[in-house]
Specification:
Layout lengths: L2 E5 L4 H12 L3 E6 L3 H12 L5 E5 L5 H12 L6 E4 L14 H29 L3 E5 L12 H20 L6 E7 L18 H14 L8 E4 L3
Parallel strand pairs: 1-2, 1-4, 2-3, 4-5, 5-6, 6-7
């Protein structure tokens, strides 16, 4: 059974990605805060055909808890797919951004992907296979007023991915980033931007690069502007 680890699967792009992977027959390890929405994703994924769905409750803003979950996931063996999707996007001017808000944003959006990758990459490297997909944002390429913490974390995510790709050359492990623009999810609400694509559009793209695309895309950045 192939295994996919997906963070932030309780709604939006993460849920759509989990369901698409379930439809493709992968077992799922879903990482995120315990919630009724997370439980619903588990049930929906089972109905979509996943042979095994397990939720790992974790607040990704808690680095210690994230490291612990990384160890639990590593015990399952090397995943075939790792999707870093979880994210937060506070909207506040720089001068009004509390230090705690800045730190939480970077913990969830950047530090958690680093910690989970660090935990899982050694076994993937030994196995000589696997795909790691980072869900960034068009904000990984530009600045947005009142979203400095979010934008900084997403630029950092791409930098981390590209450095990781250099380290994983010739190992069989492929990593890349998908950068969606305005997507019809709860995160977009109140942003002032109109949705240009659906969560399912993004999920299908993520799964394509996680399972089907040539390994030559290693280190690549896939931008999605919508229609």
């Amino acid at each position: 059974m192939k295994l996919a680890v997906v963070t932030g699967a309780s709604r939006g792009i993460g849920r759509a990605t989990a369901l698409e992977l379930a439809h493709r027959g992968l077992g799922l390890a879903l990482v995120g805060r315990a919630s009724p929405a997370q439980d619903e994703t588990v049930e929906l994924a089972r109905r979509r055909g996943s042979p095994s769905v397990r939720a790992f409750a974790c607040d990704l803003a808690d680095a210690v808890a994230t490291e612990r979950i990384g160890s639990e996931l590593a015990a399952l063996g090397p995943p075939d797919v790792l999707v870093h999707n979880a994210g937060v996007a506070p909207r506040v001017a720089v001068e009004a951004t509390a230090t705690a808000v800045w730190e939480e944003t970077l913990l969830v959006n950047l530090t958690a992907p680093f910690l989970l990758t660090r935990a899982l990459v050694p076994a993937m490297r030994r196995e000589g296979k696997g795909r790691i997909v980072f869900v960034g944002s068009i904000s990984s390429t530009l600045g947005t007023a009142r979203q400095a913490a979010y934008v900084a974390s997403k630029w950092g995510l791409v930098g981390f991915m590209k450095s990781l790709a250099e380290e994983l050359k010739d190992t069989g492990v492929v990593t890349l980033a998908v950068l969606p623009g305005s997507t019809a999810t709860r995160m977009l609400e109140g942003s002032g931007f109109e949705p240009r694509m659906s969560a399912e559009d993004v999920a299908k793209t993520i799964v394509h690069f996680a399972l089907d695309a040539p390994a030559a895309h290693a280190g690549g950045v896939v931008e999605m502007f919508g229609v």
